[in-house]
Amino acid sequence: MRMYDIIQKKRDGGELTKEEISFFVKGYTNGEIPDYQASALMMAIYFNKMNYNETLELTMEMAKSGDNMDLSGIEGVKVDKHSTGGVGDKTTLVVAPLVAAAGAPVAKMSGRGLGHTGGTIDKLEAFDGFNVGMSMEKFTSSVNGIGIAISAQTGNLAPADKKLYALRDVTATVENISLIAGSIMSKKLASGADAIVLDVKSGSGAFMKDDKGAFELAQEMVSIGLGAGRDMVALITDMDQPLGKAVGNSLEVIEAIDTLNGNGPKDLEDICLHLGAHMLLLSKKVGTIDEGLQRLRGVMESGEGIEKLKELVKNQGGDPSYVDDTSKFKKADIVKEVLSEQEGYVYSIKTDEIGRASLVLGAGRENKESEIDLSVGLIVEKKRGDYVRKGDVLAVVHSSSAEKFEEASRIIRAAYSLSEVRPADEKLIKGIVDKDGTRHI
Fold this sequence. Notes:
Helix content is about 45%, strand content about 15%. It is α+β, with helices and mostly antiparallel strands. Strand 13 and strand 14 form a beta hairpin. The longest helix has 17 residues, at about 210-225. It is globular, with a radius of gyration of 22 Å. The relative contact order is 0.14. Pfam families: Glycos_trans_3N (PF02885), Glycos_transf_3 (PF00591), PYNP_C (PF07831).
C-alpha cells in the first residue's frame, strides 16, 4: 500500500477503505508518513469530504492510536460530558457535582484551555492545592468512593489527532465537519465512557458560528458515537453571548459556586440542569428528562450539590474552605468598570471579542507554553436585550495592569452593538440530536 495512491484516490473523489485509513493513521502517528503527504490528504478530504463510514473509521483509528482509558473498575454507567467550547463556559463545575450528588458516577477527563480562557483543569487549580494529575487507581477509587473525579487528560490520549490537528491548523484544513467531529470524538471514545452528552455551541463565541453548522456537527458526532457503540445525545446551545456573567478562571469558579448555591445566572443554571438531566437519563438513574430536572433541582436546593463540590476539592488535595469563603481566591490588582459611551438596547455582542478581551488580560493562553493568570477576567453586566444608558456599566474588568485594562476595555466597548429596538429573545437550547434524530426547539 502506498500513501501516494491513497492521496490520489481521495483527490479524485473515491471512498477510502478501512485498511487505507488505518495505514495512514498508523504511518503518520509513527512518523513513517511525512507532513507533506498527510497535508495533501487533509486538503483532498477538505474538498471532497468523507462519508459516514470513512469518518467513523478515521475516528476509531485515531482513538486507538494511543492510550484507551479502562473504566470497567468503576461501578455503574459512566457518562461523559463535553462542550465544544465558548466564552464563560463553566458548566462542568456545576454539572459534575450535581450529577454525582444525584447518584450517577462522574469520571471526567478534562483539558486545559487554549485561546479565550482556561479549561476546566485550569479553573480547578484556582483551589489552593488542587491536584489535577491522578493515577488510574486513584481515579477509579475516587469515583467509586465519592462518586466523582476530574483529572487532566493523559498525554498520550489520541496522539494521531494531536498531530493531525496541529497540521490542519497550519494548512487551512480545520473547517471540515468530518475532521472536526473525528477530532473531538476520538478523544471522547478513548476516554472510556459508556455514554456521552455533548454541548454543541452555536454563535459568535463558538467554533460553529451559526445554527446550521452546529446542527451538522452535532449530527456527525452523535452518528460517530452511536456507530462506536456509545449512547449519545447532543444539545445545541446558544453562544451569541457569554454564558452567565463571569469570564476568567477564578471568577468562573466563584460563579459556579454561586450557581450550586442557587444564586447563579439563570442561563447558566438552565443549561447545567438540562445537561445534567440528560446525563442522569443515559446513566439509567431517571426515566425521563423531567424526572432528571426535578432530581437535580432537589439536589441543588438541599445543598447536596455544593457539598459534593467540597468533597471533590478535598479528595484531590484542594482547600474546600474556598467553597464557603470565595474571598480566598486570588484577586486581581485592578478591578475597574467599563462604562458605556452610547445608549440603547444591547442588540448583539461579538462574543469572540469578549473572549479576546479576557485573553488580553491573561486569562487564556496564546499558545501551549503560555502562563495564565487565574485571578483576571471580567464580569459582563449587560447582556442581549438589556437597556443601556450612557455611563452604565457594561462590564467589570479584573486586571493585573492599567495598560491591560485599557486595551480590554476598548475591545469590550467595541463588542457591543446597541439599537433603538430591543432584539427578539434567542432560545438558550436550540435543539437536540440523539438516536431518534434531530429535534429543533
